[in-house]
Amino acid sequence: MSLIGGTFVCLPRFSVAEALRLVAAERVTNLYLVPTLYHDLVHHADFGATDVSSVRKLGFAGASMTDGLLARLTEAFRPDLFVNHYGSSEVYTFTIDQDAPRKPGSAGRAGLNTMVRVVPFGARDPAATAEPGEEGEIAVIAGGDEAFEGYWRRPEADAKAFRDGWYFTGDTGYADADGDLFVTGRIDDMIITGGENVSPVEIESCLSLHPAVSEVAVVGLPDERWGKVVAAFIKRRGPVESADLDAYCRAAGLPSHKLPRSTVFVAEIPKSPVGKLLRRRLVSGDYEPEAASAFPSHTSVEALT
């Protein structure tokens, strides 16, 4: 911001109300947040009464953004530029999509001084590039100026991450026919149910578009028969039941093996201090169920329309 003669407005500790106040008071033109903080911003009670017309550019990184939140932000801000950055601490920026609403879910293409490819799961050779639409592990060239040299005194981590000059991120994704990258999650988060690989991000994006869903997180829970079953943890903003959400996912074309077999309504989705989703807490049962009186159990999706 100093280089271009701009002003950087920083909160010592993030507060949605204070962020909205500063946007209006400082006439902030650019916002750069993780998706969770954007969600909190547009769903805050003060948002509708806050003048955010100065904001013309949005950027996000740190996690995938659901289709529902992407649409909500586009409607709320009508930005001139909406950028998605995908990267890591190890190599900084991998890919950039400068028009995120154009193709929801896309992380775009390789940024300056880097190369990115999707390698089939289990492949040791980084040259074994996956076919368009084939999900695999995302690998990034490790020879650029922005790439790190390795993990401090962790040779076992280096051996796992580096293969013939490429850094294997541990992220899963695929490239479409246009060459745009789609990040589907972490290898550790992949749900293997009945021998099928299921990405939580795809299911979360589908459920996020339902008008009664405020937030959603999908994890795999242990199951004796299937190995793991798909479980959706939902924070509701309106009355909706599991059967309604199941019907909604089916109508959206979600395959049967990706449909949640368990739906849990929670008071909050657990997150880290910087707003990243903590799936492990959901798997371990460390969450607060929704209050029994939050929404009448007999209501359905029809009540919302």
Write the layout of secondary structure elements.
Elements: H1 16-26, E1 30-33, H2 35-42, E2 57-60, H3 67-77, E3 81-88, E4 92-97, E5 106-110, E6 116-120, E7 136-141, H4 155-161, E8 162-163, E9 166-175, E10 181-186, E11 191-193, E12 196-198, H5 200-208, E13 213-223, E14 227-236, H6 242-251, E15 262-265, H7 279-284
Helix pairs in contact: 2-3
Structural commentary:
- This protein folds into 2 domains: 16-187, Rossmann fold; 190-304, ANL, C-terminal domain (GMP Synthetase, Chain A, domain 3), CATH 3.30.300.
- The model is unreliable at 298-305 (pLDDT under 50).
- The protein has 305 residues and is of the alpha+beta class.
- The protein has helices spanning 16-26, 35-42, 67-77, 155-161, 200-208, 242-251, 279-284; strands spanning 30-33, 57-60, 81-88, 92-97, 106-110, 116-120, 136-141, 162-163, 166-175, 181-186, 191-193, 196-198, 213-223, 227-236, 262-265.
- The strands form 3 sheets. Strands 1, 2, 3, 4, 5, 6, 7, 8, 9 and 10 form a 10-stranded mixed β-sheet that branches.
- A hairpin with a 2-residue loop joins strand 11 (191-193) and strand 12 (196-198).
- Residues 202-276 form the AMP-binding enzyme C-terminal domain.
- InterPro entries: AMP-bd_C, AMP-bd_C_sf, AMP-dep_synth/lig_dom, ANL_N_sf.
